[in-house]
# Entry
Amino acid sequence: MSRSSPRPFGRGAGVPWLYLAPALVVLGGLLVYPVYQLGLISFLEYTQAQVSGGEPTTFQGFGNYAELFRDREFWWVLVATVLFAGACVVSTLAVGCALAVLLTRVRAVPRLALMLAGLGAWATPAVTGSTVWLLLFDADFGPVNRVLGLGDHSWTYGRYSAFLLVLLEVVWCSFPFVMVTVYAGIRAVPSEVLEAAALDGASQWRIWRSVLAPMLRPILVVVTIQSVIWDFKVFTQIYVMTNGGGIAGQNLVLNVYAYQKAFASSQYSLGSAIGVVMLLILLAVTLVYLRLLRRQGEEL
# Structure
């Protein structure tokens, strides 16, 4: 039996690129040019004086990055961002996976109600959701303090309580994606496998840990990487719920920190340098994500 030869690059091979050309042009305009400008400004001295034309723009090389890396606040904000994003990812996965399993255990009407409620939370704009959560935890009029008997406790005053409040809102608007995706994966698992595990006396936790989790590994990898990317870029929730980063900047994350440097302090070059650092970190995560997807494609 002879092996089939690779398909030659002949007539019609470039047709797919013609279909992709409009999208590539749009993506080039919306992504490539802004990234180029971001990188360019990060190598310049670009403050309000240069924007207004009062002083000429000068090339700084890696001077902005050196200044940024010497700033101890930058490293504190970077560590806080990583820890906060990690807590959001773990919490989102835990809630999403638990509710996905719950969806398989309830009847059709409760399942539909839960999915509609989750999708409603997912579709809610970040500004609206953040404002609602602030009202719920308001020190004077919020129902949460009344139910818990906390009096006039301010959740946004303390550093950790403010981060916890934002984390709850981020999980609330993020878990539906994990829930629906994992639920779809569970429904694809043959029922005979789950029935055999139950007949062997395995508990629900043991079934999840030893049966479902290994079979759902490709899906769990995808939702984990996407959650990392989303939660690392959190801006709206932090900015709205902590009034721009909390008291004395105690709740800053990189996105808000870059915004303050660029627009509040008019240090556009430093803000751009922070944006480039974030881009490189997320690019590394994305490359890992694509590599994992390729490996999953080979296994499937």
Notes: Residues 72-103 form the longest helix (32 residues).
